[in-house]
Design brief:
With 593 residues, the protein is α/β, with parallel strands linked by helices. 33% of the residues lie in helices and 13% in strands.
Length: 593
Amino acid sequence: MGRDTRRRHAGRLAVLACLALPATAHAAPPPSGVVDRTETPWTSQAGADVPRWTGVTQSLVRLKAPLDARYPRHPEACDWLSYLRWRDADGPADARDAEAVYVAMPGIFEGAAGFDIFARNVVSQAARSGHHVEVWGLDRRSNCLEDRTGIEGAKAARDARVALDYYYAGKEIAGRRFEDFHGDTTGTFAIDLHAKDDFQRQLGLEQTLRDYYAVIADGFPDPAQRRRKVVCGGHSLGGILTGLFAAWDFDGRRATTDDAGVAQCAGFLSVDTFAVSRADRAVVPALTGITSQLAQLQPGMPPYLSLPVINPEVMAVLTGAAGHAYWEGGRESSLPREIPRTRRVAEALRILFSRDLAAYRRGGRPDLTDLRVTSEAIFGLMLDDNSYNFSGIAQVSMGYPAGGPLAPKSFPLPNDAARIPGLNLLAGNLLGVGRLVVPTAARTPDGGGPLYGWRTLGDVPTNRVTNPSRESADLRQVARAFFEPPDDFLEYYFPSKLAYESMTALLGVRPGALGRHLLWDDAAFSWRGLNLIAGEGPARAAGGIVRRPGRSVLIPFAKHLDPLTAAPVQADGREDRSMVEATNFLLSFRAGA
């Protein structure tokens, strides 16, 4: 590192201090609130599947950080925070001795395990050159509402039916019976309500950022060490939350600087997002009026978000299907006929498998329950970017269906609508409508018919829909990441207050605590930053209206989740670029770099 670069980084706090008037006073950073800590290793099959991951070790870290009097009624489990920690087995056991630690905030509807593949890629890539970095995937406090008993029972039995029986058929596991999905049963497009979760209505931006601080401060009690080694960031909404964390002043006093969020980080690594604290000023005036009106509705919002194909019931089925895909591989599955046909699950299948509007009107048939499919094809058809048609933020490029006839899918928008002028952002990045296909051959009355399977990575065909260069993930490893870690890949109960406050704060509407604490807009721009941008994701589309700190790297053909799920070696033999860029960025913070 040259003299000018060293001078710039040595002066980062000075730059931050200059943002305040006056900037001579300093305050001790706020206490983390953590009163207990446990760390438990967990067993993974990842190293057995991918040799370069053999040296990566993983553990679940839990921190007891009790909620205060503002949350009078809440489960005891919600007094704990947790994160998944990935590190090199040959590296230091104490994170403070690592060369850099990436503390990663998940996106919307995403849990800590969303970083599993990315973390293994980065940790192993650094180890291959003799260096030791760590990745911590955060699990937001709202995940305390999830009941993983069924998933853990299915893992022990290596049978997805155990989970389905627990969540849907009233079967007990170890004397425990599932209560419910904390949701109502009215209206296909309803947002769920549940009285006992009223406390979650208060889980907004302030608590989330304080929890973020608590994790960092517990792992690195010395603020000076944080500013040398801790790289903050996240994926999707997690990057936006990181930008807001950078802008947050924890004691609410501009005259002090040591407690500011930006002073807790050495740099910022964002994955298909942007780590800034406010949108470009050119768009704020046009949107401020709208968000001000929405502010009047916020007190009446339900506790968590739920959508037709993204809701707790469907997430439970998808997680079970992931385990089934991993355990059963390419064998024909009877699971489709055993999937519970609850209102929400049936509606999700209807949306996912409807070829067109006419098919949707007649019930979406043939849907998954009508097909002969392998266990891998079940999971693939429910999540892959060539078949999943509800939201571009939930697609993974992990292969292509095979074994039977396919037809273009033109529901809910025309096939390949992303290429229609004016629909590029909405259709391609938000609704996820590209060149999609759907199986059309149902099982015959005698149980015959084509068997739909799955082709992944180098086995992907070249046709007008896809080719090997457009497919980056190994379905088997994505499936493993969905069910194996002790924290979820998915976030079943995403607080609506957090979604609302993070978006309106970004646009400049900041009532109450947000106005008192979001004092350091654009502070992240005085730090080093790296942005991994999916070539076909929403962050690229938003590039004209937001600013990003540091350097941006475009990942061609990638969908929103692909930088997190990509295999370390792609079909053409090249190493995944997101892995290489992220690793090099983390190693740039090692001593002397």
